[in-house]
């Protein structure tokens, strides 16, 4: 046994031809966040603290779709959401519709710890943020030029993009453009982290700006316990992908359920659950109480990093396609 | 086995001192809603249409805590939420933070059918409602005198009970009545708790399952608070095997992803509907208090609760019908 950690910066249609100026900052971000998480685990911080810490770093990184760098709604605004869950107690917190809170995941934690509720949204969540004195910023802080561009493209293509990396190539011939991007959508977005310590304490947290060009008020899977985030005494899961598919598939919950009820290992369970979601729609990272790690996706790639106490560590974007377990 | 089946609920957790006439009123309403659902099923309406129809009835009647008659936020306003799920393809729709939509369950259905998303909330949901041309009313429409009184009691109770979770000795008048039952849910004395979320689950003649849940939420809740009712997997769930609607302590239902749990033990452990409902109520709630109604594709219906009572009614095609409180 021993500690283990896995984090992601989103699953999606990440092309292998991703240019260095887009790939390198993200790889560096993953490396930095992994280091932060590893240091915290080595310092015996509780996994709940670790996942919050790591997700804060991911939120602050402008190249991932959470916090700074969040994608924009159809009105060009920011609406961020997040959730966090502690495995042993199954206590959880969630927030949606944030427009000024610098670290949504921390507000989710405060909802869990400082209110009698689990989930606060929109103006009520913003009011709570002010009460709690968390760091806020003008909405313009979160908006990056890349995301303004993505919104423009999405609106031109009149589509809701499950995130970014893949800007829609403008072609005189629409069919050629559609052919180049499988199912027409480029996907990613969302960040998350799962961690377990040497005592089997598990935690998970997920944070996102949502879908490019989403309707104002749209809530995805990231703040929904059981969909984007789940942790119990068996495992911790953070998922990413097409929110609507993750919600109907109760993806994060199902990994733990399948381990418990079908006796599958973490890796088998993760593969099983992702396989149930239509291809190109989902990815997840998970750790088990015994320190196993699983990172599975049915998209072209998933920005991810993981490490365990035995010295294993990995940072990847592609490879490791989902294998259907027999 | 086979044939249609329907169950409705008006909330789990009933004040043992509830006046007899309120109990009778509740049973009459449940009976009326069952009858409406039954004749819809006999007219071959699909499960998804029937659950919406029945929950609309429950929302429109001021008796239970949904639509008109909703519990009030700390500000004395109404914020309603609902979700609906269609078993066959697990399509779903949910709404939160509604203040002018007369029938939240119908807006949830429109989110499912007419939007690219699964869940809309607050201003965005209200905008969508306007665009869809659903019936809108002033927030005052939903507020009843009963609940204005309840809110006052809840505030008194919270200021005394919030940190201590023990009942105080009675004061005078209404306060004393509130303190008569030491039973509590969600930190409030049972008499002011307002647990009466409503829900309906149906399996039609073709074996299609559907579920819907609607509520005004917790009395004296923080503005922006979202409970379990609009969360797919927690308050509502439907798949090929079953349809489930839950009610009770929101936190307990979310932490245990209660609705999904019923379906998961059927799916992964092969339990029958009654066994699944019993199992989750007995094993998944820990200290939480909640109730569940469920139907299976085989025409079975089951209810379970670990609270003192649950307003419920159920009926099956072979003529079985039952309405109860305890």
From TrEMBL, chain A:
InterPro entries: Ntn_hydrolases_N, Peptidase_T2. CDD domains: Asparaginase_2. It catalyses: Cleavage of a beta-linked Asp residue from the N-terminus of a polypeptide. Its EC number is 3.4.19.5. It is an enzyme of class 3 (hydrolase). Keywords: Autocatalytic cleavage. Heterotetramer of two alpha and two beta chains arranged as a dimer of alpha/beta heterodimers. This is beta-aspartyl-peptidase. It comes from Hibiscus sabdariffa (roselle). The lineage of its organism: Eukaryota, Viridiplantae, Streptophyta, Embryophyta, Tracheophyta.
TrEMBL record, chain B:
It comes from the Eukaryota. InterPro entries: Ntn_hydrolases_N (IPR029055), Peptidase_T2 (IPR000246). Pfam families: Asparaginase_2. Transmembrane segments: none annotated. Heterotetramer of two alpha and two beta chains arranged as a dimer of alpha/beta heterodimers. This is Isoaspartyl peptidase/L-asparaginase 2. It comes from Hibiscus sabdariffa (roselle). The lineage of its organism: Eukaryota, Viridiplantae, Streptophyta, Embryophyta, Tracheophyta.
């Amino acid at each position: 046994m021993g500690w283990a950690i896995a984090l992601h910066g989103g699953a999606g249609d990440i092309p292998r031809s991703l240019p260095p100026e887009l790939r390198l900052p993200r790889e560096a971000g993953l490396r930095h966040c992994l280091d932060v998480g590893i240091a915290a685990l080595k310092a015996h911080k509780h996994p709940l603290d670790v996942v919050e810490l790591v997700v804060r770093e991911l939120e602050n990184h402008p190249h991932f779709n959470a916090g700074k760098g969040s994608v924009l709604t159809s009105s060009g605004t920011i609406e961020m959401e997040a959730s966090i869950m502690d495995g042993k107690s199954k206590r959880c917190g969630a927030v949606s519709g944030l427009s000024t809170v610098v670290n949504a995941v921390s507000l989710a934690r405060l909802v869990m710890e400082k209110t009698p509720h689990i989930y606060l949204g929109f103006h009520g969540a913003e009011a709570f943020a002010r009460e709690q004195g968390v760091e806020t910023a003008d909405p313009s802080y979160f908006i990056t030029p890349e995301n303004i561009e993505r919104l423009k493209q999405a609106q031109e293509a009149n589509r809701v993009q499950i995130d970014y990396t893949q800007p829609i190539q403008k072609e005189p011939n629409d069919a050629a453009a559609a052919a180049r991007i499988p199912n027409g959508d480029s996907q990613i977005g969302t960040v998350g982290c799962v961690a377990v310590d040497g005592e089997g304490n598990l935690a998970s947290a997920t944070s996102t700006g949502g879908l490019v060009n989403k309707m104002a008020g749209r809530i995805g899977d990231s703040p929904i316990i059981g969909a984007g985030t789940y942790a119990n005494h068996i495992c911790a899961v953070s998922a990413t992908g097409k929110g609507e598919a993750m919600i109907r598939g109760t993806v994060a919950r199902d990994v733990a359920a399948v381990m418990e009820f079908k006796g599958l290992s973490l890796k088998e369970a993760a593969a099983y659950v992702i396989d149930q979601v239509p291809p190109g729609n989902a990815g997840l990272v998970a750790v088990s109480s015994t320190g196993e790690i699983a990172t599975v996706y049915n998209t072209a790639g998933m920005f991810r990093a993981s490490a365990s106490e035995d010295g294993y560590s990995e940072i990847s974007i592609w490879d490791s396609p989902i294998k259907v377990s027999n | 086995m086979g044939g249609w089946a329907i169950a409705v609920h008006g909330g789990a957790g009933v004040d043992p001192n509830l006046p007899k006439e309120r109990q009778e009123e509740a049973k009459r309403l449940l009976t009326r809603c069952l009858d409406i659902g039954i004749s819809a099923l006999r007219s071959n309406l699909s499960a998804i249409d029937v659950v919406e129809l029945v929950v609309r009835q429950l929302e429109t009647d001021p008796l239970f805590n949904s639509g008109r008659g909703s519990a009030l936020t700390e500000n004395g306003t109404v914020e309603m939420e609902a979700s609906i799920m269609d078993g066959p393809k697990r399509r779903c729709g949910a709404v939160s933070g509604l203040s002018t939509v007369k029938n939240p369950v119908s807006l949830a259905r429109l989110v499912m059918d007419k939007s690219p998303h699964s869940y809309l909330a607050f201003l965005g949901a209200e905008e969508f409602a306007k665009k869809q041309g659903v019936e809108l009313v002033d927030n005052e429409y939903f507020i009843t005198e009963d609940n204005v009184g309840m809110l006052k009691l809840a505030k008194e109770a919270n200021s005394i009970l919030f940190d201590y979770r023990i009942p105080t000795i009675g004061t005078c008048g209404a306060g004393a009545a509130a303190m008569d039952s030491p039973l509590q849910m969600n930190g409030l004395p049972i008499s002011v708790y307002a647990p009466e979320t409503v829900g309906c689950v149906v399996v039609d003649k073709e074996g299609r399952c559907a579920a819907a849940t609607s509520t005004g939420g917790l009395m004296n809740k923080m503005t922006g608070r979202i409970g379990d009712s609009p969360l797919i997997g927690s308050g509502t769930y439907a798949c090929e095997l079953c349809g489930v609607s839950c009610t009770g302590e929101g936190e307990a239902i979310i932490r245990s992803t209660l609705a999904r749990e019923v379906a998961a033990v059927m799916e992964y452990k092969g339990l029958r509907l009654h066994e699944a409902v019993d199992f989750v109520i007995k094993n998944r709630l820990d200290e939480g208090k909640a109730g569940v109604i469920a139907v299976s594709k085989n025409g079975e219906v089951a209810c379970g609760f670990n609270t003192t009572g649950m307003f419920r009614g159920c009926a099956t095609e072979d003529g079985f019908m039952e309405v109860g409180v305890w």
